[in-house]
Amino acid sequence: MNLNIFVSKECFVYCRGCYSYSREEKCSEILSTEKIERFLKECGLDHLEYIKEETYFAEKGTNYGIYYSKEKIGDLFLPSIELKNFYDIENEVYVCEILIENLLKFIKFEKKFKQLPKFPYSQRDFSFLFPEDIDWKEIEKEIKNLNLPIERMEVFDIYKGKSVPSDKISVSFSIIFRSQEKTLENEEIENFSKTIIDVIEEKFKGKLRG
Length: 210
Hints:
Layout: E1 3-7, E2 11-17, H1 34-42, E3 49-52, E4 64-68, E5 71-77, H2 81-86, E6 93-99, H3 100-103, E7 122-131, H4 136-144, E8 150-159, E9 168-177, H5 186-204, E10 207-208
Antiparallel strand pairs: 1-2, 2-6, 3-4, 4-5, 5-6, 7-9, 7-10, 8-9
């Protein structure tokens, strides 16, 4: 994974490697918000909203404005060719730009003690074929609203090419389950996984791979 950070008085930009697809075959709707949300949560901001917007620096149709308490605090997007050339970025990346002045209105520096988890986590990986115009944020939102003991979920691979139909895209992601009350049994994890698979297949027309 590639990582770059650009900083100015007005903003800072987090720039990270963006998986295995070519620019001609990219899926503009799949931008995982997990790492961004983790960073902003450390700053005291939770319950973010993502609104699709256009911006000069992004490839058309790939930008999402990041809002907290109805105020814009940044953007998440695939950079335009012009922007990549300006910063000499050769790899495929996604960019998160944070507006520092707006962030400082809400940031909380107070740290509270959080007890370490008492019970172990369980991780499950999923790989689906989706219609190429899917909106990953809608899938994330739907899964998080299932009221399952999900601690974290993150996309780790996106692929469109050989072995994938021309109108589909392959998305692989991991989910970490953890209960605050007990150690989860394998049967429970399998039931959680089946619930997620059923929702993705029924609502988002996804097809489980493997």
